[in-house]
Design brief:
The complex is a heterodimer of chains A (114) and B (166).
Chain A: H1 5-51, H2 56-104
Helix pairs in contact in A: 1-2
Chain B: H1 2-20, H2 32-51, H3 61-84, H4 91-102, H5 114-135, H6 140-163
Helix pairs in contact in B: 2-3, 2-6, 3-5, 5-6
Classes of the chains: A mainly alpha (114), B mainly alpha (166).
Chain lengths: 114, 166
Protein backbone atom coordinates (compact mmCIF):
# COMPACT_ATOMS: atom_id res chain seq x y z
CA UNK A 1 0.00 0.00 0.00
CA UNK A 2 1.45 3.39 -0.98
CA UNK A 3 1.31 6.57 1.04
CA UNK A 4 -1.09 9.28 -0.14
CA UNK A 5 1.19 12.31 0.12
CA UNK A 6 -1.63 14.87 -0.19
CA UNK A 7 -3.59 13.19 2.60
CA UNK A 8 -0.45 12.91 4.71
CA UNK A 9 0.21 16.64 4.32
CA UNK A 10 -3.39 17.45 5.28
CA UNK A 11 -3.17 15.20 8.34
CA UNK A 12 0.12 16.81 9.44
CA UNK A 13 -1.33 20.32 8.99
CA UNK A 14 -4.44 19.35 10.97
CA UNK A 15 -2.39 17.81 13.78
CA UNK A 16 -0.19 20.92 14.04
CA UNK A 17 -3.15 23.33 13.80
CA UNK A 18 -5.01 21.53 16.59
CA UNK A 19 -2.09 21.98 18.99
CA UNK A 20 -1.38 25.56 17.95
CA UNK A 21 -5.02 26.69 18.18
CA UNK A 22 -5.35 25.19 21.66
CA UNK A 23 -2.07 26.62 22.98
CA UNK A 24 -2.36 30.06 21.41
CA UNK A 25 -5.39 30.80 23.62
CA UNK A 26 -3.35 30.09 26.75
CA UNK A 27 -0.33 32.06 25.47
CA UNK A 28 -2.46 35.06 24.55
CA UNK A 29 -4.30 35.04 27.87
CA UNK A 30 -1.06 34.75 29.83
CA UNK A 31 0.62 37.57 27.90
CA UNK A 32 -2.36 39.90 28.33
CA UNK A 33 -2.56 39.22 32.09
CA UNK A 34 1.16 39.75 32.55
CA UNK A 35 1.36 42.94 30.52
CA UNK A 36 -1.62 44.43 32.35
CA UNK A 37 -0.18 43.42 35.74
CA UNK A 38 3.26 44.86 34.89
CA UNK A 39 1.64 48.13 33.77
CA UNK A 40 -0.41 48.21 36.98
CA UNK A 41 2.76 47.55 38.99
CA UNK A 42 4.47 50.55 37.45
CA UNK A 43 1.44 52.68 38.30
CA UNK A 44 1.32 51.39 41.91
CA UNK A 45 5.02 52.16 42.45
CA UNK A 46 4.54 55.70 41.11
CA UNK A 47 1.49 56.22 43.36
CA UNK A 48 3.35 54.80 46.36
CA UNK A 49 6.25 57.20 45.86
CA UNK A 50 3.94 60.21 45.51
CA UNK A 51 1.79 59.26 48.53
CA UNK A 52 4.82 58.43 50.69
CA UNK A 53 3.63 54.84 51.26
CA UNK A 54 7.04 53.59 50.14
CA UNK A 55 10.40 55.04 51.08
CA UNK A 56 13.54 55.28 48.94
CA UNK A 57 14.81 51.82 49.93
CA UNK A 58 11.49 50.16 49.11
CA UNK A 59 11.21 52.11 45.85
CA UNK A 60 14.61 50.80 44.69
CA UNK A 61 13.64 47.28 45.75
CA UNK A 62 10.40 47.44 43.75
CA UNK A 63 12.12 48.87 40.67
CA UNK A 64 14.74 46.09 40.71
CA UNK A 65 11.97 43.52 41.13
CA UNK A 66 10.01 45.02 38.23
CA UNK A 67 13.00 44.40 35.97
CA UNK A 68 13.32 40.80 37.22
CA UNK A 69 9.61 40.16 36.73
CA UNK A 70 9.64 41.54 33.17
CA UNK A 71 12.64 39.35 32.33
CA UNK A 72 10.99 36.29 33.83
CA UNK A 73 7.81 37.02 31.88
CA UNK A 74 9.88 36.73 28.69
CA UNK A 75 11.56 33.55 29.95
CA UNK A 76 8.20 32.00 30.86
CA UNK A 77 6.78 32.87 27.45
CA UNK A 78 9.80 31.24 25.84
CA UNK A 79 9.31 28.16 28.02
CA UNK A 80 5.64 27.95 27.01
CA UNK A 81 6.60 28.24 23.34
CA UNK A 82 9.12 25.41 23.72
CA UNK A 83 6.39 23.18 25.15
CA UNK A 84 4.14 24.09 22.20
CA UNK A 85 6.90 23.35 19.69
CA UNK A 86 7.42 20.00 21.38
CA UNK A 87 3.71 19.20 21.13
CA UNK A 88 3.56 20.20 17.44
CA UNK A 89 6.68 18.19 16.65
CA UNK A 90 5.36 15.08 18.37
CA UNK A 91 1.88 15.45 16.82
CA UNK A 92 3.45 15.49 13.35
CA UNK A 93 5.66 12.52 14.21
CA UNK A 94 2.53 10.68 15.37
CA UNK A 95 0.85 11.28 11.99
CA UNK A 96 3.94 10.07 10.10
CA UNK A 97 4.16 7.02 12.32
CA UNK A 98 0.53 6.12 11.63
CA UNK A 99 1.03 6.60 7.89
CA UNK A 100 4.00 4.21 7.88
CA UNK A 101 2.05 1.67 9.92
CA UNK A 102 -0.83 1.78 7.46
CA UNK A 103 1.41 1.63 4.40
CA UNK A 104 3.63 -1.22 5.58
CA UNK A 105 1.13 -3.18 7.59
CA UNK A 106 3.64 -3.28 10.43
CA UNK A 107 2.00 -2.78 13.80
CA UNK A 108 3.99 -0.07 15.49
CA UNK A 109 3.06 1.24 18.90
CA UNK A 110 2.50 4.99 19.15
CA UNK A 111 5.65 6.91 19.93
CA UNK A 112 5.96 8.40 23.36
CA UNK A 113 7.99 11.35 24.66
CA UNK A 114 8.92 9.45 27.82
CA UNK B 1 19.11 -6.73 -9.04
CA UNK B 2 15.82 -7.73 -7.45
CA UNK B 3 17.61 -8.33 -4.14
CA UNK B 4 19.27 -4.90 -4.27
CA UNK B 5 15.91 -3.19 -4.95
CA UNK B 6 14.30 -5.10 -2.10
CA UNK B 7 17.17 -4.19 0.25
CA UNK B 8 16.94 -0.52 -0.72
CA UNK B 9 13.19 -0.55 -0.11
CA UNK B 10 13.69 -2.13 3.32
CA UNK B 11 16.45 0.36 4.11
CA UNK B 12 14.19 3.34 3.29
CA UNK B 13 11.31 1.91 5.33
CA UNK B 14 13.62 1.48 8.35
CA UNK B 15 15.05 4.99 7.77
CA UNK B 16 11.58 6.56 7.65
CA UNK B 17 10.56 4.68 10.79
CA UNK B 18 13.69 5.92 12.58
CA UNK B 19 13.12 9.55 11.53
CA UNK B 20 9.45 9.54 12.35
CA UNK B 21 10.19 7.86 15.69
CA UNK B 22 12.29 10.81 16.78
CA UNK B 23 9.80 12.24 19.23
CA UNK B 24 11.37 14.88 21.36
CA UNK B 25 11.12 16.52 24.76
CA UNK B 26 11.88 20.24 24.91
CA UNK B 27 10.29 21.08 28.27
CA UNK B 28 10.50 19.33 31.66
CA UNK B 29 7.95 16.80 32.79
CA UNK B 30 4.78 17.85 34.57
CA UNK B 31 5.03 17.42 38.35
CA UNK B 32 1.56 17.02 39.89
CA UNK B 33 2.88 17.33 43.47
CA UNK B 34 4.68 20.58 42.63
CA UNK B 35 1.57 21.98 40.94
CA UNK B 36 -0.66 21.11 43.90
CA UNK B 37 1.89 22.69 46.23
CA UNK B 38 1.80 25.86 44.12
CA UNK B 39 -1.97 26.20 44.16
CA UNK B 40 -2.23 25.39 47.90
CA UNK B 41 0.50 27.88 48.83
CA UNK B 42 -1.05 30.50 46.58
CA UNK B 43 -4.22 30.35 48.70
CA UNK B 44 -2.21 30.80 51.92
CA UNK B 45 -0.32 33.78 50.46
CA UNK B 46 -3.55 35.46 49.40
CA UNK B 47 -4.98 34.90 52.90
CA UNK B 48 -1.90 36.63 54.33
CA UNK B 49 -2.38 39.57 51.97
CA UNK B 50 -6.06 39.79 52.87
CA UNK B 51 -5.15 40.07 56.56
CA UNK B 52 -2.81 43.05 55.96
CA UNK B 53 -4.56 44.81 53.07
CA UNK B 54 -5.20 48.01 55.05
CA UNK B 55 -1.63 48.22 56.31
CA UNK B 56 0.03 47.01 59.51
CA UNK B 57 1.30 48.25 62.86
CA UNK B 58 4.84 47.22 63.76
CA UNK B 59 3.66 46.34 67.27
CA UNK B 60 1.55 43.45 65.94
CA UNK B 61 4.22 41.99 63.63
CA UNK B 62 4.82 39.03 65.96
CA UNK B 63 1.28 37.79 65.30
CA UNK B 64 2.03 37.53 61.56
CA UNK B 65 5.56 36.18 61.79
CA UNK B 66 4.40 32.54 61.77
CA UNK B 67 2.27 33.08 58.68
CA UNK B 68 5.17 34.79 56.90
CA UNK B 69 7.57 31.97 57.79
CA UNK B 70 5.09 29.29 56.68
CA UNK B 71 4.52 30.75 53.21
CA UNK B 72 8.18 31.69 52.65
CA UNK B 73 9.22 28.17 53.67
CA UNK B 74 6.66 26.59 51.32
CA UNK B 75 7.69 28.77 48.39
CA UNK B 76 11.41 28.07 48.94
CA UNK B 77 10.70 24.33 49.05
CA UNK B 78 8.67 24.54 45.82
CA UNK B 79 11.43 26.54 44.08
CA UNK B 80 13.91 23.84 45.09
CA UNK B 81 11.57 21.14 43.82
CA UNK B 82 11.24 22.92 40.48
CA UNK B 83 15.03 23.36 40.19
CA UNK B 84 15.78 19.76 41.12
CA UNK B 85 13.74 18.45 38.19
CA UNK B 86 15.93 17.47 35.24
CA UNK B 87 15.67 19.74 32.22
CA UNK B 88 15.66 18.03 28.83
CA UNK B 89 18.84 18.43 26.85
CA UNK B 90 18.98 17.67 23.17
CA UNK B 91 20.49 18.92 19.96
CA UNK B 92 17.55 21.23 19.25
CA UNK B 93 17.81 23.20 22.50
CA UNK B 94 21.61 23.27 22.12
CA UNK B 95 21.30 24.73 18.62
CA UNK B 96 18.73 27.32 19.74
CA UNK B 97 20.96 28.30 22.70
CA UNK B 98 24.01 28.64 20.44
CA UNK B 99 21.99 30.87 18.10
CA UNK B 100 20.66 33.03 20.95
CA UNK B 101 24.09 33.37 22.57
CA UNK B 102 25.68 34.33 19.23
CA UNK B 103 23.25 37.26 19.20
CA UNK B 104 23.95 38.26 22.76
CA UNK B 105 20.67 36.85 24.09
CA UNK B 106 20.65 34.60 27.13
CA UNK B 107 20.24 30.88 26.56
CA UNK B 108 16.80 29.31 26.47
CA UNK B 109 16.60 27.58 29.82
CA UNK B 110 19.78 28.22 31.83
CA UNK B 111 19.23 24.69 33.02
CA UNK B 112 16.15 25.48 35.08
CA UNK B 113 12.45 25.97 34.56
CA UNK B 114 11.20 29.61 34.54
CA UNK B 115 8.87 28.69 37.41
CA UNK B 116 11.92 28.32 39.69
CA UNK B 117 13.04 31.94 39.19
CA UNK B 118 9.42 33.15 39.48
CA UNK B 119 9.13 31.41 42.86
CA UNK B 120 12.46 32.87 43.98
CA UNK B 121 11.01 36.30 43.29
CA UNK B 122 7.89 35.47 45.34
CA UNK B 123 10.15 34.45 48.23
CA UNK B 124 12.15 37.68 47.88
CA UNK B 125 8.97 39.80 47.93
CA UNK B 126 7.56 38.06 51.02
CA UNK B 127 10.88 38.24 52.89
CA UNK B 128 11.14 41.99 52.19
CA UNK B 129 7.51 42.48 53.19
CA UNK B 130 8.12 40.72 56.51
CA UNK B 131 11.26 42.80 57.08
CA UNK B 132 9.44 46.10 56.51
CA UNK B 133 6.41 44.96 58.51
CA UNK B 134 8.54 44.11 61.55
CA UNK B 135 10.77 47.17 61.19
CA UNK B 136 8.35 50.01 60.58
CA UNK B 137 4.93 48.58 59.69
CA UNK B 138 3.42 48.43 56.22
CA UNK B 139 1.40 51.17 54.55
CA UNK B 140 -1.60 50.07 52.45
CA UNK B 141 0.11 51.30 49.26
CA UNK B 142 3.17 49.15 49.94
CA UNK B 143 1.01 46.07 50.61
CA UNK B 144 -0.72 46.59 47.26
CA UNK B 145 2.64 46.66 45.44
CA UNK B 146 3.92 43.53 47.23
CA UNK B 147 0.66 41.76 46.43
CA UNK B 148 0.79 42.67 42.73
CA UNK B 149 4.43 41.54 42.49
CA UNK B 150 3.53 38.19 44.05
CA UNK B 151 0.51 37.80 41.72
CA UNK B 152 2.71 38.42 38.65
CA UNK B 153 5.29 35.83 39.70
CA UNK B 154 2.77 33.24 40.90
CA UNK B 155 0.94 33.60 37.58
CA UNK B 156 4.22 32.88 35.77
CA UNK B 157 4.91 29.79 37.88
CA UNK B 158 1.36 28.37 37.84
CA UNK B 159 0.80 29.00 34.11
CA UNK B 160 4.12 27.39 33.20
CA UNK B 161 3.65 24.34 35.42
CA UNK B 162 0.06 23.74 34.28
CA UNK B 163 1.20 24.04 30.65
CA UNK B 164 3.50 21.06 31.11
CA UNK B 165 0.53 18.66 31.17
CA UNK B 166 0.78 16.98 27.76
Amino acid sequence: MSIDIEQLLTNMKNAASEVINQDITVLRGFSERQLKALAKHTELIAKGVVSGDIDEDLRDFFLDSLEDMALNFAKTLRGLLMATIEKVWNAIVGVLWAAISNATGIVISSPSID
Amino acid sequence: MKVVKHSLKSFFIVLIICISGCTTQLAPKYDAVLFKGLTDTNVKIMELFASVSTGTDVATCGKREGAYNAVIGSIDALALQSKARPMPENSITEKVNEYLESRGIGSMSNGEAPSASALENVSKQLAKMKEVDCKSGLKAGAVAIFKNAVIISMDQAITYESFLVR
